[in-house]
Predict the structure.
Amino acid sequence: MRALITGITGFAGSYLTEYLLAQGDIDVYGLGLPQAGPGHVAHLLDRIHLFTGSLNDADWARQILADTRPDYIFHLAAQASTPVAVADPAGTLIPNILGQLNILQGCVTLGLDPVILIVGSGDVYGLVRPEDLPLTEDTPFRPTNPYAVSKIAQDMMGLQYYLSHQLRCVRVRPFNHIGPRQGDAFVVASFARQITEAEAGMRPPVLRVGNLDTARDFTDVRDMVRAYWLAVTLGQPGNVYNIGSGRAYRIRDILMQMVGMSARPLTIAVDPAKLRKSDVSEVRSDCTRFRQATGWQPAIPIEQTLRDI
């Protein structure tokens, strides 16, 4: 079987690559940006087929599809930083929407019939109210940033191509996934970098943090990519699935666990630049639909994830 992973050099893409290679009977092809280099799959270059270019280029995307003719497409490529999206909405909306459009339209033009994983986000639910919890797939969208809007567009585009062209699109809405290799634009990775740099004497022993009173649904990235595989093999094309732990972890508790792993005394200071105008107090998923379809459950405890990070 052939699997094509867009965004293969990134955080989740690299873990998905390792997971698929471990299956033993899957040829892995991947797409990355030229400026990013091999990224997190540098150690796997002798085992995968890596192409570099931009999915904004419809001709290039179509040629890659024609050359690889994949059985599975995992569309992970996206600009995923919320602060970046707020600062440059077009720089998020255009590549996230256009890149997926070129993949789907390329499959239609070439007459390909892969199972396609459309990776949305739990961020589409946006301004969550306490009475909305836990969040099901039927919870209304209330996006609060351009990244969430781009993910709604990708989600609905996947549904449209399933209905209009019978492409076997399986849509997922993953909630926060964390682990080693994640960029420090994300909260847990930011804590880890600050702590380790303070331990190494590279910065003062002061952790700059945002709002610690929010709670988020965290899942280890290694559990998440296992869910992605189950989604394309056991999920129903045309359907949409939340994927998350189903638990809300308080950011303050996460930070204190990580501080407790450090041998150096650390102090904590709120950085106004890290505070968001629209910060929802709690996010917690209901993943009953996905668990019933696949039997998936997170296997890695949060304590192990934090130690590994």
